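In keeping with the milestone schedule agreed at the kick-off meeting, the structural modelling team has produced records for the first pair of proteins. Each record is given below as a sequence line and a structure-token line. The laboratory manager (R.T.) confirmed that both were archived under the project's standard naming scheme.
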Amino acid sequence: MRIDILTVLPGLLKGPFDESIVKRGIDKGLVEVHVHNLRDWSNNKHNKVDDAPFGTAAGMVLAMQPLHDAITDLQSQRDYDEVIFLTPDGETLAQPRVNQLSLSGNLMLICGHYKGIDQRLRDHVITLELSIGDYVLSGGELAAAVLTDALVRLLPGVIGDETSALSDSFQDGLLAPPVYTRPAVYNGWKVPDVLLSGNHAAIDAWQEEQALARTKARRPDLLEGRDL
């Protein structure tokens, strides 16, 4: 997989991709992550990449020329499965969408900034718009890092135990059950007996029961429409 990220603040993305799972995927050659400075495509003598909006709206908008030129330039080099704009009014990112995107070959991520991007680019160039939640960030860089991390951890070979990702919250539409580790008794607090029983069928049944109970208590919206 290759992920190209267009941003006006490339420095914001150095840390997330130099550590942990994403770095492991990069080091293993399982994913390429390329962060591009949008200013490199600006034809303004000061490398300006924003402009005032038409109408009476306050704030600034990412300028049409550098963003369109950057997208066009990258598209001339390879085909992209999706050109994704990270924006608060996009589709809320959820695990099924992450699963689907993890099968892609090439993805381009556009980090929104200021008041966003020209609607004509959204109408004619962007193929998918995603949001990581109902709140506003200073830009789309952190959202791009979240999406990249969610994608890379699903790539075969990135995580040592590949079945681990399949048991995460949301993979089966439920939250994950509680987990415990050694020692079996700590400070008087005991691990549930079933987890020490060695009875795999009983353990699986307990985990399914706990996952359902936790989902009912914390995210009942995930159960809407399910026949339980």
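The second protein of the pair:
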Amino acid sequence: MSASADLPLPDQIEGAPHPREALQLFGQEHAETAFLRAYNSGRLHHGWLLTGPRGIGKATLAWRIARFLLATPPDDGGMFAPPPPSSLDIPEDHPVARRLRAGADGGLLVIRRDHDDKGKLRQVIRVDDMRKLHGFFGLSAAGEGRRVVIVDAADDMNPNAANGLLKALEEPPAHATLLLVAHQPSKLLPTIRSRCRELRLSPLAGADFSRALAQAGVTDPDRALDALSGGSVGAAIALAQGGGTEIYASLVQIFTGLPKVDRLRALKLADSAAGKGNEARFDLILTLYDLFLARLSRAGILGPDPEAVPGEAALLARMAPHHAAARQYAALAQRLGARARHGRAVNLDPSALVLDMVLQTEAEARAFL
């Protein structure tokens, strides 16, 4: 069963436009320049690995490259050939741009996790998904013979799918370009990485971050989104939609009264993670708790990060006054992270799990106060 319009897409952040609709990419000029340099050299590599943290524009760049390749006629070497392109920009009303937005360009194949017969999103990209490559490359070519494949995310491939992709990278058809979006490239087969050129994207900051958020529909971000998202637009959108700023502020307030935590506030936060329909909030609480401990650990070594919510900097400085404390909180983060993963696997009560994390952190912090 293929993903349809009423099913969520695994390569789209909920509440944000799909990457195919984002005609601009902010803060990744070095990656675009590297690709254009290779294109203009006349020796365009067939495999490209787009890497970096989640939510910083890798999928947007993949779609920009696909749009550019399918819309740009090759240089035939004639005296009237156009100058080499200096940008990946393609006009919004270009026929290729319109077809890609509609998902109707025969020159592009997107491979991603599919839905099963019950409409549930699969956990991996399967070899059956990768077999689409054979039929796609066998079709009569369009757009000056170019074919573009986007795999998003390549991290999701199971071993059989990875081997199928490797075969395509080893024996690529003429005029084919494969774009692999990878959040964790270390998970990929070394042979896949070795057959691709890497374009590494960087977290966004400053005006680039604000413009990217605005393009995604977040027009009035607070400072916490900037501080907590790590330059990831995807993370900022998830925080904005899930009340992440309020959750993180609650964590800070829970520990502000150390050596005793605010038990009532802790219970309220824990209870908000329980019950059917609160799975996304539970996930966000776990993510933000892990981030809180990471910022706490860094504070013991480098001093507090720029304050995300009022009172955070003073709290982190008090809880983590030195390197020894930083090491203890880093170890605590590993223990709690492992317990959270186990708890989710065996369906432990989310409320009890969150409250236990708070109490363990309270006990750890008392040693440094």
